[in-house]
Every structure is written in structure tokens, then in C-alpha cells.
Amino acid sequence: APASGGGGAALCLLPLLLFLPGLAAGPAGMLQPRDTPSRERRELGGLWSFRADLSPGRDAGFAQQWYRRPLRQSGPVIDMPVPASFNDITQDPSLENYIGWVWYEKEVLLPLRWLQGDPAPRVVLRFGSAHYYSIVWVNGVQVVEHEGGHLPFEADISSVVQGSPGALCRITVALNNTLTPHTLPPGSIQYMTDKSRYPKNYFVQNIRFDFFNYAGIHRPVVLYTTPAAYIDDITVTTSSSDSVAMVRYQVSVVGSTANSLSLSLRDQEGKVVATGDGPVGELKVLNPNLWWPYLMHENPGYLYSLEVKMQAQVGGALLEDVYTLPVGIRTVHVTSTQFLINGRPFYFHGVNKHEDADIRGKGLDWPLIVKDFNLLRWLGANSFRTSHYPYAEEIMDLCDAYGIVVIDESPGVGIKLPESFGNKSLQHHLAVMEELIRRDKNRPSVVMWSVANEPASELPPAAHYFKTVIAHTKALDPSRPVTFVTDANYALDHGAPYVDVICVNSYFSWYHDPGHLEVIPFQLTAQFENWYKTYQKPIIQSEYGADSVPGLHSDPPVMFSEEYQMAMLRAYHSVFDKKRKEYVIGELIWNFADFMTNQGTTRVLGNKKGIFTRQRQPKAAAFVLRDRYWKIANESSCLPPVITSHSLFL
């Protein structure tokens, strides 16, 4: 989308983005902040002060050091809700398509108990996500910078706030949404040099992905405390047999050598079912309640609670830290034809989604999240892919609790240019996978990692690139299969040899042979047979679908009508039904709901491939999919046959 302001802006963005001195987010643990007997948390949602840097070089904020004093003293500010994207909040079209640095600020008063004590507690500032590149100051002191728009980052701000007079904590954030060939997702800045057609220094941000590049502080900002010596990270893996499960754990502690470290695993009634001690070990659970997917068991999403207690001597004080981690006991295994959860074949009948809604953009919104999960369960969907970036922890929590299976995808979408396969991009991609796995490694709902979506994997450099990324991912987490989602020709894909499951996107009769539904059976059957013959790996149809404008009808079906969307789905389904008896292990519709994109001649207020509108109202295709998913669930379920598409699991 075009950026407002002079073109000197883009030239100044990259040096600022890449070379500003600061503290990089380190490799510490990334436990989700929780209230415990030893920890407090405070969300900083609400209205923040906001200012876009409209200077020709987008660099006035740094040149004038806006972070050194209240932002309102730098010039005009407006109120901006957090969490939310800033693009659609105002009536200013230049802000909707703004590219460059924007500034946020929030002033909060801290409780005195956070600032006192011997030793005083540790105070941490955490961002669930901010898109894309963030630099954060507290009381004018830089505390962290972070690249990437979809994963959390945090900073220990104890020394800053405990050394400041009074309890005021002024948080300033400079945020840049520029995408380059080496960011994830990638993009590029293009200058329009034809002076007869464009203003001086006019530029646009080009992207190679089909969703709007919303920007802002998208997820909760939290202040939380821990004792000075604290539990930094917990890693859990599980295995099970008929009557026994093993929960293996590793706990890391920072600040002191723990005098004692004890663990208690409790069931949902609060009963202790296993105990352990020490930083590494395993817990034996008799007659375990396994974590099962939705519609695969009468009690899906069963979670135990693992309480970890640490005591440590710091100076003359005996400190105790407590952290409770939800734990689901389940196993995942892939064969040449099946995907097994707890030893039973699992068929993905689900959706692809986006974090996207009116006004708030990609900002976390609880009513929307709960509505979406109610729609998923109404639909009979048992799974989704986090297309095309990691979703909020709050969404992932509900997947764990409700038994919704997740293919957890990195922001590796739009990797199309040859320079995006170079070492600079590769190193950042490896770092992103480390952040993603550190955040989501303990989630039972996450059954597979996806490292990318529709990259140019037919390019020769893709072989080394994806071999490296996938090997790195497997080294970080040997317990889960790894994939990426391809739309390349089966004979030309250089990354496919390294995945555990083939995930393929295709839009026969839409982007290929548009309007010709009759080609679907032939082309889709050939697609599956070619991929399986070449790789002997199970296949998921990870995307398929058609745009439909709500209320647009045509019989016989024509493109963009609700009838065409239904007809395309049914044509795909007839092939799925044949191949799922062999090696097709899943189908994920594109998309759950309509979503916003950049403006273009093929997009009328965004992408209309949703089976629900952007406002979450069903199109006719939603009922087609609902009937199908409940039928599949009843075929494979061990539950009583009274389960129908009209049962309420809400």
C-alpha cells in the first residue's frame, strides 16, 4: 500500500531498523505470565498516546529523542487503543496505509511493593506481539528491541524502575512496519521514479502475501513480577501406554541455585497424581486421562496442572517461586499413510484462519475469539492452521482447553524473491523458529510445526534453505513432525524431501481454469497421486476454496456466487472421500472467514473465500462444510451415535 510522506522516509527506515544500538531479546525462557502465590501481573490495555512520525525521513522521533520525555511534549498525539492495529482506527487515510515509525506511550504507577524489599522483586515488561520491529524505553532508558510481529518479547526493567524516583513507569515504544527481503514475512520498498506520474520520492511497500499488513501493538502488554530468584523455563514431553503415562520435565532456575525444587501434577479435580523433585526428571501417572482432540473423545482437551515450587537462598532471604503449567498427555506419530494421536488415526477436518476483524485489525479481541471457537465447534471442525503466522497465546490456550488441534505456522509467508533465501534471511528464520518453539513447545494442541507457506520452493536455493530450517526445528523439538505448505509442482519442489507431511494448496477452477468446475476431479486426483507416488508421505489439502459475495446467487453456478463456492467444495470433497481411504489425512478450507487484503482489482473489500463473512455470519458453504465435518466425525468417533450436527458442544 502507498506510504504517505516523502521518499526519504524509506531510505532512513532500514538503517534505523537494523543498526540502532540496543539490547536484543535474549534466549531466556518465555513462560506465559500468570498470577501465582509468588507472582503478580498487570495488563496495560486501554488507551495509549500515539504519534506517527510524518517527517520526510521518518526519523524525527530519533533525532529529537521523543523517548526522553512524555510523548505529548514532542507534538500532537492521539489516543490509540491497545491491543489493536492502528490502521483502521482513525479517519486518516494516510495512517491506514502508513509505512514507517510510529510511537506509543503509556504512563503507569507501580505498587510500592514492587519497588521495595531485600531483595526487591523482579519487574518484567512483556509484549504479546507488536508488528513489526520494536524498540522499547522505560523512563527514557532503552530496555529491549525485537524483530518480528507475531511473537512475545520482554525485558527485566527492575533496575530502571527501582532506581527511579517515585513509582511512575513511562513506557515508550517505537514501532516500524517496514518489510524488506530479509524480514519474515518479506517485502520490499519500491520507488516510483516516473516524475510524470508520481510525486517526488513516492514509494510503496510491496508484499507477496494476500492479507493486509496490519501494524500496531496487537496483543496484551503486561507488567509482571517474580522473586529475585525465579523459575525461568519449563519443558514438558509426554508418552503413554494403556494404563501408564510418563511426563518428562526439565526446569531452569535463574538468580540462585535452588535449595529445593518440587513438582506436583494435579488432575482437574485438584488431586495430586504424581510428584517429583529436582530440575530434571519424570512423573509416572497411572490410568491417565489423555488429551484428545475435539470429537475424538467424550472429554476432549483434558489438562493436568503441573505446579513447580522453587526455594532459594538469596542473601539473607529465603525466596519461593511458584509457577503452574497446564499439561496435556498425548502422543503424535506419522506413518506413510496416517497421522496418529495417542495411537489412533486422526483426520484433520478443519479450517485456515486469520487474526483479522473490522476496526481492530489484528488486535486481540476476546468476544471475537470466543465467537470463533463457538463457530468452529458448531462447524464440527477439529483443527486449524495458524495461517500465516503464530496466533495469540490466548487463542492457543483455548485450543489446549477445547481439544482443537493446531498446525503451528511461522510468519514465513511470501518468501518468493531469490534474495529471501540467502543467509541473512535464513538466520532470521532460524531465530523465529526458536522463539516460536520456546513459546508453544508445551502445548498439547500443537501437533506439527509449519515453517512456511507457499514459498518459491521450486528455486534451487530452497533446498539448502528448507533442509536447514527443518533440521533446526527438529533439533529444537524432536517430538513433533515438521512441514511447510507448498503450491509448487511436485516434481520441482526442492523443500518437500525434508518434510514429514505433505501440505499442498490448490485452487482448481479458480486461479487455474477459472469457472471450469469439471476439471476438479481430474486435476485434484492427479495432484494427490503425483505427490504420493513421489514422496510416500501422508498428504493434507492445506488450502482450497473460492470467493463468494454474500447474497450473490446464480444457477447454474458462476464464480463469486454462493452456489459456485458450494459446488467447488463438493467437487473437492468427492475426491477427498476417495483418497482419505488411502493417504490423505486432512482437509483445511480456505478460509474460515472473509479477511482484509491490500486493495487490488481482484479484491473487493478483501478476500471473500470465507465460509463466514468478516462479521462471522454464515454463507451457504458453511452449512455444506458443517454437514460434511459432522458426518466425518461420526464415522471415526468412538462416541455414542447420538452426536449429530445439531448437538451442542458449546
UniProtKB/TrEMBL annotation:
SUPFAM superfamilies: (Trans)glycosidases, beta-Galactosidase/glucuronidase domain, Galactose-binding domain-like. GO terms for cellular component: extracellular space; lysosome. Residues 229-330 form the Glycoside hydrolase family 2 immunoglobulin-like beta-sandwich domain. Transmembrane segments: none annotated. PROSITE patterns: GLYCOSYL_HYDROL_F2_1 (PS00719), GLYCOSYL_HYDROL_F2_2 (PS00608). Its EC number is 3.2.1.31. One of its GO terms (biological process) is carbohydrate metabolic process. Residues 44-227 form the Glycosyl hydrolases family 2 sugar binding domain. Belongs to the glycosyl hydrolase 2 family. PANTHER family: BETA-GLUCURONIDASE. This is Beta-glucuronidase. It comes from Oriolus oriolus.
